[in-house]
Amino acid sequence: GAVSNANSVKQEPKGESLTVSLFLAHHLSLSLSPSLSLVVQAFSELDLEQHQECAYDHLEVYDGRDPKAKVLGRLCGSKKPEALTSTFNRIFIKFFSDNSVQKRGFEAAYSSECGGKLKAEVKTKDLFSHSQFGDNNYPGGASCQWLVKAEEGYGVELIFQTFEIEEEADCGYDYMELFDGSDDSAPRLGRFCGSGPPEEIYSAGDAIVIRFHTDDTISKKGFHARYTSTKFQDSLHLKK
C-alpha cells in the first residue's frame, strides 16, 4: 500500500486552526493480521521543512497503535530513511505542519512481513501461518519467525487447531520448527510437517519461537494455532 500527507505529495498544507496553537496534525493507524508485522518501505517523496531536531514540520512513525508507543523515526527535510519495521502488527504515523514554511510533503510505500513478536496473555489469541489462511494455501518461498512471549513467571501454551504442511520424511521442504526459549538458539522442541505436532505444546520458560519455512513447490493449507499464557507448565512440554 501507500501512505502520504493529505494533499498526496502536492504542497503540504499550512497550519490552520481556530485553537490557540496554530498547527495542523494528521495521523494514520495501520494494522494487519497478528501473524504479520508492518514495514514502511522506500519513501518515493520526502520534502518537509528542514530543522536539525525536526522541531517544525515533521513526520513521526510509532511502533504500535498510538503515539504512546516507541518512536521508530522522526523525519523532516529531504533525507529518506531506511525501511522502518514494526515489532508487532501495528504502526501509527503522525504528520505535523506548523503555519510557516511549506514544502511538497511525503509519500511512502508500506507492506507486510510475516513474523514478529506476540504477547501471550490469559486471553486466548490466534496465530495463522499466513494472512490469507482459509482462503488460499500458504505462499512459496516464505521464511517467517514469531516470538510468543508471556509475562515473567508465566509459560506459553500453544494449541494447534489446524495443521497441514507438505509432508516429507525429514520435513526438509516445508516445515514448522519450535524452540523452547526467546530465540532459535534455545532447545528445539521439534521440526514438524504433514499433520503436525501434538495438539498442545507448553514452554519451560516464558517464551516459544515458531519458525515457518516453505520452498517454491507444493503448498498446503498451513496452520492455525491458539496461544495463551499459563501458570501451569508441563514438564514434558508436549501433550497428546
From TrEMBL:
Domain CUB: from-to ranges: 1-113, 114-230
Record SUPFAM superfamilies: Spermadhesin, CUB domain (SSF49854)
- Keyword Disulfide bond assigned: yes
Q: Does the keyword Protease apply?
A: no
- Protein name stated in the entry: Bone morphogenetic protein 1-like
Which UniProt keywords are listed?
Disulfide bond, Repeat
Q: Which CDD domains match?
A: CUB
**Gene3D superfamilies xrefs:** Spermadhesin, CUB domain (2.60.120.290)
